[in-house]
């Protein structure tokens, strides 16, 4: 049933969502802002992206976050990259893994995309008060898949 | 010393390279083909991409392969994607992890890039005689990082 | 119910699908070819792309085909462009509308993408035995939305 | 004569240009701002884009606007997307048709490009005081091709 | 007058066109092939691209060829890259300048685009019987701007 | 030795770097800002991009700047375009050559990328107090390769 997909998607989405800080970019805030012109967008994100795709077996939440970040660095869509560096941290990627993944892309996208992505990462790390050195702290407040 | 970077890069590259089948796409074959017009390309791939970047700490070989594949699916550069689905398999990603990573990108790149990438994956899996079902077999012949 | 989305998607997809010629590229053939490595892809195309998105109100089938073709010309994903020039013809776009849409993109994508897209269009028109001049003939065998 | 192309282009451009509100993004404002470093840019937009391409037969103004918007959503060039959501409204596309076209692209570009484009659409709709619900109002002040 | 733009464009185009070998990709062959579905395309290439843009002052023919090749490597549109490596050679770029320009892009586009572009360059050099070493030979048969 | 590559890269980089104005975007400022999250990025830019690639023979500094700018206009990565319009001016490209190169790309990328790039160029020219008309002034303060 469709309702099941929505609930499954919402449950999955919450594994990637930090709710303790209102300033952090989340899917729910983005959906809310588009509610008046595109009310179904939030539904598709939850039902299709999280209910159908993220809920599939075969990859961990951290692997999915890594794949997502790598694609967004390559595309250069920065607002979404900010969102998914956040979801990645919440899903259990360490700041170091995120920075290493972006750095790893230099031979594949060149420096410009990587430099812009690192600037976004720096901003997100600052907002979440994590750093390469303080990685341990972050680990504790992230939501690890059980 | 520069020589050290080359040796380190070559060692690292071999962790991603299957040498038992001459039909499989490898960096070494690509470099050889470009030897007469761009003799330094192979050196940069080994020294910079593998010696400097792939040799960094913080990600496993499988994570690096996942990041690489995700970027190439997004870019749509198919000859390189064929190469790196091969390096991913050799580095220890299972066929299922590769297919799941490509499938995961539907919400981020749309269906066209994903369908074209899956067609490339199907071709590579066929050449390497692996499949989603026969994943166990492949695991044995891949080079796992120690 | 999920079953309803699948049936709705399949019905909608058939409005864009020419079944009388086995050589024409269709979603169903693409899904079949990927069946062994990614069996859910066909389901997502039918349920999400056609059941959820194409089934929305507010645009005609021809408008949706126009939007799709414009995006694929811009992306340069040629196998998908071939598929959707076919779906566009079946949905009732005339060959002239398709050529004009591609030509219209010169100021937005430059000549290279447009020239490559016109080459794909020429191939599809030839396979379907339609042309700018024979547009009337094509109109009769296309599936117009009621 | 070249003069004819310019006049034809300017006439065509005005079918897409709202002149009653100085805050709305228009081609003329963009050309003016670049006048000192690239004085011919405005001429090329008017003569080539509008005089040669937009003046061709075979598509309505609304279809051309739809094709343009679809390409710009796919490219992610947001300042130009803002401009052409404006030209689309002026050419007679309803806010709903614009939102539906952007939403339709989810399966072809993924969510990131679509979400960013909807954010631009929301801004433009707000500046022009139109909405999905108030579509009727907008229809009246738009310039319909005769 | 429009006729003047066409003649000016055609004259300029011929400075970039090798007519002594029928196997070499040229704008005229591409236009001919699209004549039946898009008869105006050739006119726009000659009048706008070559008559308006290439005929501007401020850059040499070689600089324009360099700019064109750099954009096409970045876009990955290979048929057009093949065409413009040809126009670049005819305009007086040496094979070495072309290979160096492509190689220079590694830090800006990454290796994949560069490797694919070098493969195209190798094919063109072979068809025109030039090489990095035989650059002197090529210089003699190229059309240098006076 | 690696040290040699760093020194060679730094020397080469300084040929493209204006140090007399702290407001101008430079590689060194970008590296500094990313120092805390990605301390090796600056090293790779200097050693690989400038030490290995920019230090190659076969192209002048101005040609390398032209190639770089053309790729960045095509990619649409604006912060990097701002940086490299600056490095281009410092390497000896005139404002007119830069504007002409961007304008030349209209037939290859379409107007949107070109218009956005010209807006960046206008900003850089203003910050450096140069203009198309005042090109002579700029020439004197730029660093010409000997």
Describe the structure.
The structure is a homohexamer of 146-residue chains. Chain A is mostly helical and 146 residues long. Chain A has two domains: 1-56, no CATH class; 60-131, AhpD-like, CATH 1.20.1290. Chain A is 70% helix and 0% strand. Chain A has nine helices and no strands. The first copy, chain A, has helices at residues 2-15, 27-33, 41-54, 61-75, 78-91, 95-104, 106-109, 111-127, 135-141. The radius of gyration of chain A is 15 Å and the shape is globular. Residues 134-141 of chain A have low confidence and may be disordered. Chains in contact: A-B, A-C, A-D, A-E, A-F, B-C, B-D, B-E, B-F, C-D, C-E, C-F, D-E, D-F, E-F. Chain A binds chain B through residues 45, 48-49, 53-54, 56-59, 63-64, 66-68, 70-75, 96-97, 99-101, 103-109, and chain B through 45, 48-49, 53-54, 56-59, 63-64, 66-68, 70-75, 96-97, 99-101, 103-109.
List the helices and strands and how they pair.
The structure is a homohexamer of 146-residue chains.
Chain A: H1 2-15, H2 27-33, H3 41-54, H4 61-75, H5 78-91, H6 95-104, H7 106-109, H8 111-127, H9 135-141
Pfam family, one (chains A, B, C, D, E, F): CMD
Protein name (chains A, B, C, D, E, F): Carboxymuconolactone decarboxylase family protein
Domain Carboxymuconolactone decarboxylase-like (chains A, B, C, D, E, F): 39-122
